[in-house]
Specification:
307 residues, Non-ribosomal Peptide Synthetase Peptidyl Carrier Protein, Chain A, alpha/beta, globular, TIM Barrel
């Protein structure tokens, strides 16, 4: 499964990922409040294509009634699941008592779990959380996971970091193991999965039922097929420079198709940087990309780069 990532897991990203073995994708995080108010930009995040299935949708918010209304709007749209965000560490979100702030407010979280599960009839409801807000012991994650199961949620994803850690430091997979042992519903492990070897190790170390890939997929859509190969004891595929160039071009062209040239050009700067990371001369190429004036110029820069 691909974890939802704001500004990253848009439709173009998901289409490319599916070509390389991704099965269950997730939209970018959706504000429940903005969705209920039919905010134009928020609605654009729900864009899918026929080959973008199955896809889950993650909602974030602090008001149980608004979260329920958002879920009611989403269910008829054909999403495979509705995920509740209890993990976003961004101050803009936590400052509104949403995201990972719910880790320290289990009463509010329980109300949200209950209201959303009552609002939908057929679509599974899941939750993504962290190990805690500032407490690294895992107690908050255990409590929230047990509440989620009691409220009828279908699965849990645990990112092995506290909100205080953000994306720094090392993910604590032991908390994922603790949560797995504490509930009977499926648990997905997330955090520090950058290679197929990492995927095998988190599965072995935690006993988790599945794996949620996060930043490890940025500029590396081959990670999905490589994880499958690793579990099947097959050879790991290492993309050539030609493959990387071609995939960058395809990714950026898809963004232009779905978002328009202007928006695609703005996105292209960081998307291209994902793919070239680690290549010889990447820093110089990144500087040129950041000075580019068009999407075509970025594509030309990447395609002319010779490591």
């Amino acid at each position: 499964m691909q974890s939802p990532m704001a500004g990253c897991t848009d439709l173009a990203f998901r289409v490319i990922a599916r070509r390389h073995g991704l099965e269950l994708a997730m939209t970018e995080m959706i504000s429940a409040e903005a969705l209920v108010r039919t905010h134009k930009k928020t609605l654009s995040l729900l864009l899918r294509s026929p080959d973008d299935q199955p896809t889950g949708c993650q909602i974030v918010g602090a008001n149980p009634e608004t979260m329920a209304k958002a879920a009611e709007i989403l269910e008829p749209m054909g999403f495979a699941l509705i995920d509740i965000n209890c993990g976003c560490p961004v101050p803009k979100i936590t400052g509104q008592n949403a995201g990972s702030a719910l880790m320290k407010d289990p009463k509010r979280a329980k109300k949200i779990f209950s209201s959303v599960t009552r609002a939908v009839r057929e679509v599974p409801v899941t939750v993504k959380m962290r190990t805690g807000f500032t407490d690294p012991s895992g107690k908050e994650a255990l409590h929230l996971a047990q509440l989620a199961e009691a409220c009828g949620l279908s699965a849990i994803t645990v990112h092995g970091r506290t909100r205080a850690q953000g994306y720094s430091g090392k993910a604590d997979w032991n908390v994922i193991k603790m949560v797995k042992r504490a509930v009977t519903i499926p648990v997905f492990g997330n955090g520090d999965i950058f290679t197929a070897r990492d995927a095998r190790r988190i599965k072995k170390d935690t006993g988790c039922d599945g794996i949620a890939i996060g930043r490890g997929a940025l500029g590396n859509p081959w990670i999905y097929e490589n994880i499958r190969s690793a579990f099947g004891h097959k050879k790991i595929h290492r993309p050539s420079l030609v493959e990387i160039r071609r995939t960058v071009r395809e990714h950026l062209r898809l963004n232009a198709r779905f978002d328009g040239e202007k928006v695609a050009h703005l996105k292209a700067r960081h998307i291209a940087s994902w793919y070239i990371k680690g290549l010889p001369g990447a820093s110089r190429l990144r500087e040129k990309i950041n000075r580019s004036r068009s999407l075509d110029e970025i594509i030309a820069l990447v395609e002319s780069h010779d490591s």
